[in-house]
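Example for tutorial group B:
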């Protein structure tokens, strides 16, 4: 499954959705979407569900794992002719406006292919600069380039720092964590009374705020 999206693109046809998305019960993380509504009744054949939504029972089936989920109480009035926006086929993209503050700032990780000629690289650089100007100032930004796989530690104006990985060599998750200083054992213990810089440890080194 893949999707190509343009972050922060303005679309006039997006509906105003002023409520929380309906999410899959734990431990799943899927969100209610038009692809669960190919049929609007639920029938069982030998105990196997043949469609995705039970209007009468207020249930929906995740199209990824086929787990049955209950609609929240405020969806009690939905019907075949009264569906929420996220179940309409014309709204495959929805932006939810939440009443609660976001738990974390948005993160934009740029993954850039550097195997380009000079002119294309210049155009790519200009596009990245424009993109950064459109991102909210409180957003976090990271950069990975490949040709050779390189993870860049941003935020160092005077001395850039990068981590280079060979594409032909396989590394375990633990090895990558140790090399990037993301594991607890790889972190140096500060001296007593010494302040710990906000960007010193963990993924914050690779994801500084745009501002």
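The residue assignment follows.
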């Amino acid at each position: 499954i893949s999707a190509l999206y343009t972050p922060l693109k303005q679309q006039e046809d997006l509906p105003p959705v002023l409520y929380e998305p309906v999410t899959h019960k734990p431990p799943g993380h899927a969100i209610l979407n038009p692809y669960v509504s190919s049929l609007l009744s639920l029938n069982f054949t030998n105990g196997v569900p043949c469609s995705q939504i039970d209007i009468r029972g207020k249930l929906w089936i995740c199209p990824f794992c086929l787990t049955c989920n209950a609609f929240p109480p405020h969806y009690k009035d939905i019907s075949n002719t009264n569906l929420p926006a996220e179940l309409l086929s014309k709204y495959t993209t929805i932006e939810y406006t939440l009443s609660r503050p976001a738990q974390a700032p948005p993160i934009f990780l740029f993954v850039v292919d550097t195997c380009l000629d000079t002119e294309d690289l210049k155009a790519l650089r200009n596009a990245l600069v424009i993109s950064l100007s459109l991102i909210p100032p409180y957003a976090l930004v990271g950069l990975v380039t490949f040709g050779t796989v390189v993870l860049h530690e941003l935020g160092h104006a005077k001395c850039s720092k990068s981590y280079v990985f060979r594409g032909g060599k396989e590394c375990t998750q633990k090895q990558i964590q140790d090399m990037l200083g993301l594991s607890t054992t790889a972190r140096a213990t500060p001296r007593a009374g010494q302040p710990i810089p906000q960007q010193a440890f963990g993924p914050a080194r690779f994801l500084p705020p745009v501002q």
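The two ends are 34 Å apart (CA to CA). Compare this with the pattern of hydrophobic and polar residues in the output above.
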